[in-house]
Amino acid sequence: MAYYKRADVYLARGSPKLALSDLKKSMTLKPDFTPALISHGNVLFKLGHLAKAREDYAAVLKYDPSNKEADKQLGMTRTLEERITLGDQLFQSNQHEQALDAYSEVIMVRQ
């Protein structure tokens, strides 16, 4: 629990990498501690590591299928991954303005 609490302090101080380290330690000590899993996923989400964040949210739902926050964040993560894929496809087909719109939407949501 102390690692989880210290991670909150690191986040409040604007140190997400230090928070990730403590959250990982907390998750190692208690893999089913869903608040740490959600916080870890949220930090990864903000840093743009969507696939890893998705894994954390999915793990929360394994332990607690009715967890509304994890369900919401998992849905948001999947939506953003889809928008990135769309942006990639648009860029590859030289539809640059639409690609910019798709990527900009992802950036706005992650802030």
Automatic annotation (TrEMBL):
Keywords: Repeat, TPR repeat
Transmembrane regions: none
SUPFAM superfamilies in UniProt: TPR-like (SSF48452)
TPR repeats: 34-67
Pfam families in alphabetical order: TPR_2 (PF07719), TPR_8 (PF13181)
Gene3D superfamilies associated with the record: Tetratricopeptide repeat domain
Name of the protein: Uncharacterized protein
